[in-house]
Amino acid sequence: MGNRIHNAAYQSKVMSAEDAAALVNDGDMIGVSGFTGSGYPKAVPIALATRAKALHAAGKPFRVSLGTGASTAPELDGELAEANAVDFRTPYQSDPETRKKINTGDINYSDVHLSHIAPQFRNGFHGNMDLAIIELSAIKADGSLVPSSSVGNNQAWLDLADKVILEVNSWQSEDLEGMHDILGNIHKVPLDFALPIYHSGDRAGSKYLSVDPAKVVAVVENDSPDRNSPFKPLDDISKSIAGHLLDFLDLEAKAGRLPDPMPAMQSGVGNVANAVLAGLLHGQFENLTSYTEVIQDGMVDLIDAGKLEVASATAFSLSPEYATKMNDNAKFYREKIILRNQEVSNNPEVIRRLGVIAMNGMIEADLYGNVNSTHIMGSRMQNGIGGSGDFARNAALTVFVSPSTAKGGAISAIVPMVSHVDHTEHDTDLVITEYGVADLRGKSPRQRVPEMIKVAHPDYRAMLKDYYAVAVKVANGQHTPHDLSQALSWHQRMLSTGTMKA
Predict the structure, then answer these.
(1) CA nearest 313: which of 390, 218, 232?
(2) 282-293: per-residue pLDDT in tens?
(3) Catalytic positions
């Protein structure tokens, strides 16, 4: 491990991960760094999980509460969940062991909009923050803290926590320094300032995180890589969905409804998002910008091709190949990429001002455009709402994408009524599957129905038409007709028989 700690006071606080973990108390509320598997502490959580197992074996209680930026990785969420060391978790996760514990009721999980979580902590909704564990790429001689591959809620946690443990990770490129834009001195609402961001490339803060040195109780060194999972090869369905969106944007441009250059884009993580980015790489749109949550492989390709002028986010979500590329070439990319606090990257004020085009995945949508992006069959949590709500409510154009079916066709993504609502019909402009684009803009609920049916899988279109025909006859009103006795029958049938098909 190379020495990245250039401040004598912090050097004097260097200790092992095990010694640092011993400073954590049962019942602590801990704020940790990490967002989509980037920039999370990797040594202390493993040591903490080992300690928890030993305490449990001795018959002693040990559980903590965790506030993060978003999802982390097996070394953090997975290890602590498997050790039964987590009582409460917020705001977003994607770890299988954590998900299992949430759905068995062993972990209390608060699913929160990503732009909301730091203000909630700042205003005391989650009680006192006892400890923060934050990964850095370096500590400068003057005590400035150089962030690593994500920013997330790091500055908020450093401000709020009573005690701080810093993990300095020499795997992270030293050339990340200068890529970040950290807005500090954010206080409780009401706020008395506007965010001075009028373009994705505008900077409003500092390159460094800051902390009261007296709060730092430990500094731990490591050189472990981020969890950079390879993306699946683009399949025909993802390519088809991306093609429909790009064709739609082309028509919007020709109709004069899309400014030139195109407004900043936001995209969730996944195959469809990367297919869209790949399509933009070979498409007609130039001088692109992005105001989003994560930097994905496709955005790096757009930067390399000169098509993407600047990308603003709060973290990386890269494949191993592209993570290596970023580390090797961070000096170049820091001129094109800005990593911000997530309460800035996901800020409704800025999203609205920039006229963002937002694209996110979903689990299901109903005939009227209500969207479920978090729950399987109404009750089982998948991951969480993440930042999709921040963008859906405030974007100039809100797009939800999904294959038309799941589980080999047993589940339809277009249903009579969603089993859980994360995004209401009021926030949904387009729903896109491999079968086309449902354009819900300017339409009454009843006018949206044929749009939604046309993007459903052919196996389910007749069933949707039959449901709607009955709903019109039996509903107690004709604005949004539903047959409440059958509205969730597809989900009930899936739980009973293993398929939604009649």
Answers:
(1) 390
(2) 888 999 999 999
(3) 293
